[in-house]
Amino acid sequence: MRMANISCARAIGTEPLRRAVLGLALLLAAAGPLQAAPLPTQAPAPDKVAVPNADPTFPFSNEIAAFAKAEAAGPPVADATLFLGSSSIRLWDIKGSFTDIGTVNRGFGGATTPDVLHYYKRLLPKAKPRSIIVYVGENDLAAGATPDKVARDVLTLLRQLRADYPKAHIAYLSLKPSPIRWTLWPQMAAVNMTVSARSKAMKFDYLDVGRPLLATDGLPDASLFRADGLHMNPRGYERWTRLVDAYLDHAVLADVGAGRDS
What is the pLDDT of residues 232-255, one digit of tens each? Predict the structure, then answer.
């Protein structure tokens, strides 16, 4: 019987509430339809907020900014030789190795050919260079690019340089054999062969700077490299300097013979 009392109490207690709800419904019906209030504008979820990124390849931003700062620090170097590429260019004592000519070093460590193409306009000096020396492509292969892709990118860079500097002497330095990357040598040789085969048609010069770094057994001469087995030491750079210096001397003589001032 207790349950009956509870059910009865619930029925008695809910009757006034039912009447109140019914009355409110009648009032709303008389007043007409209600206008829905506008929903507040919601902020985008945190994971949807776009994060600004001024430069997708930001690891090189500081080095590129340093080039611009150095360029603005003094007058343009007239008839300079532009050295362009990766760490093999950056670590070369360009100024001390070529004391009789003006030089501009635009090498930045770890650069691949796409990196150089990405920053291309920001790597060029204010004054037109007389000669341009390019070394790039080795890091591309180390990062997993195929020889065909590397050769295409290198040729794209050389084609752009030729278009921008039709009178300059442009030389591509062959990819070098280094102890730590010796397993990549067949791929490097494939890139070298493709680029060399296109040099005459595209009007640039190809310099084999890899052979002087090999020992008599055909392997990389470790005495020409730093302890990391990748970058050359001063002895290795001396061999490169002799080759490039002879090339630049020949370029100057060719300009004199052609009666060209720059």
Answer: 999 999 999 999 999 999 998 888
pLDDT tens digits, 206-218: 999 999 999 999 9
Q: Please check whether residue 109 is in contact with residue 126, taking contact to mean a CB–CB distance below 8 angstroms.
A: no
Tell me the whole-structure pTM to 2 decimals: 0.77
Token duo for residue 122: 């920001």
Residue 30 to residue 8: CA distance in whole angstroms: 34
How far apart CA 222 and CA 163 sit, in angstroms, is 39
Alpha-carbon distance of 241 to 232, in angstroms, equals: 12
DSSP 227: T
How many DSSP H helices and E strands does the chain contain? 10, 5
CA angle 234, 240, 245 (to 5 degrees): 115
Query: The tokens of 102 are what?
Result: 């003006």
Q: Please, which residues have CB within 8 angstroms of residue 32's CB and are 6 or more apart in sequence?
A: none
d(C-alpha 60, C-alpha 121), whole Å: 14
